[in-house]
């Protein structure tokens, strides 16, 4: 159709009629003059609309899923963050429980030895001042820490303070090759000097070359003059190997320290020495060794008649008895006894 003036007028007229019909239909509701036509159109085109709707529903759902995917991604991200936070909390709770146990053990040792201590946390580890094995703690001169103070934890001797700052201090660990401490053996009081060997057991040289030493023997610190750098009675470790003296004036043994130097966390600096030597009271209690009870033995002898007699002379059975036939055997025995009674009676009469 050509774009003429008549065609444009016709288009405007049709649009006006359409708006008029829509207005009449809306105002009339169910009583609208075009209601019948609308219902007829719905009957004809309804199935077509439903079919088209069914066809495009998956597409619509997909579009909705794409639209909601951002929200779901945000929710997953939130859940992942909450899960990570929960794991971190559980991890921190485990560490807190571990630190509580360490602190409790250290306080028990301090109480047993009557040591006045200042608690501290290991905040750094590494070589310092030319030493191989040192740690830094978060307590210093502001906390009363001084050079050459003993450092311990809930397991035993950790080391000694070498340098002190206002809020931190450096501790030389007992396993450092430049570390030496005087020791005393439990019970026998044999004296020696323990020297660190890094990750290997401590080397202890006893002053008595003929000292009787065996694996499992335990050592504590002997103590220093004026309790510096070492207070007495701090657990050092247990003997794991004894070298033969070979006639030497001294004897060398190897001691496994109680402290795990690669996992230090909570430590205590002894700021007040005990009034008297605690001796062996700080050492961990050893398990009580109980001798196994001997298994009781029962001696049974067989009599000529088949009776089984135990050590007390009690008859406990008969080898002629069949399993489960005790009642039958008793009955048979009773019958035999009854049968023998007349003979016995007859014998009695003849003797009379």
Automatic annotation (TrEMBL):
Cross-referenced InterPro entries: Cell/Rod_1, Cell/Rod_MreC_2, MreC, MreC_beta-barrel_core
GO cellular component terms listed in the entry, alphabetical order: plasma membrane
Every Rod shape-determining protein MreC beta-barrel core domain range: 130-270
Keyword annotations from UniProtKB, A to Z: Cell shape
The protein's name in its UniProt record: Cell shape-determining protein MreC
Nuclease in keyword set: no
The keyword Metal-binding is assigned to this record: no
Pfam families the UniProt entry points to: MreC
Highest taxon in the source lineage: Bacteria
Family: Belongs to the MreC family.
Organism expressing this protein natively: Streptomyces globisporus C-1027
Biased composition, class Low complexity, residue ranges: 329-352
Region Disordered, residue ranges: 277-352
One annotated GO biological process: regulation of cell shape
């Amino acid at each position: 159709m050509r774009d003429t003036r008549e065609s444009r007028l016709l288009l405007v007229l049709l649009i006006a009629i359409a708006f008029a019909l829509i207005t009449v239909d809306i105002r009339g509701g169910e009583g609208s003059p075009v209601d019948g036509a609308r219902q007829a159109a719905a009957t004809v085109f309804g199935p077509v609309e439903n079919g088209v709707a069914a066809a495009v529903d998956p597409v619509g759902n997909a579009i909705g899923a794409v639209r909601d995917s951002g929200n779901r991604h945000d929710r997953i991200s939130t859940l992942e963050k909450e899960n990570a936070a929960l794991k971190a909390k559980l991890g921190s709770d485990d560490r807190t429980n571990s630190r509580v146990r360490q602190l409790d053990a250290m306080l028990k040792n301090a109480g047993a030895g009557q040591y006045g201590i200042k608690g501290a946390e290991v905040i750094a580890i590494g070589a310092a001042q030319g030493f191989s094995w040192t740690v830094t703690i978060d307590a210093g001169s502001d906390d009363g820490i001084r050079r050459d103070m003993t450092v311990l934890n809930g397991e035993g001797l950790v080391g000694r303070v070498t340098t002190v700052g206002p809020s931190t201090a450096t501790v030389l660990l007992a396993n450092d090759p430049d570390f030496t401490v005087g020791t005393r053996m439990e019970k026998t009081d044999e004296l020696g000097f323990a020297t660190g060997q890094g990750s290997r057991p401590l080397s202890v040289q006893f002053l008595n070359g003929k000292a009787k030493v065996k694996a499992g023997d335990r050592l504590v610190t002997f103590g220093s003059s004026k309790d510096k750098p070492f207070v007495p009675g701090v657990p050092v470790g247990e003997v794991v190997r004894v070298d033969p003296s070979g006639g030497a004036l001294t004897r060398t043994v190897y001691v496994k320290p109680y402290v795990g130097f690669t996992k230090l966390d909570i430590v205590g600096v002894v700021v007040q020495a005990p009034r008297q030597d605690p001796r062996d009271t700080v050492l961990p209690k050893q398990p009580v060794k109980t001798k196994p009870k001997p298994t009781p033995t029962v001696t049974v002898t067989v009599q000529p008649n088949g009776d089984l007699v135990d050590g007390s002379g009690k008859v406990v059975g008969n080898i002629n008895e069949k399993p489960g036939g005790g009642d039958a055997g008793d009955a048979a025995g009773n019958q035999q006894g009854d049968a023998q009674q007349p003979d016995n009676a007859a014998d009695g009469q003849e003797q009379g």
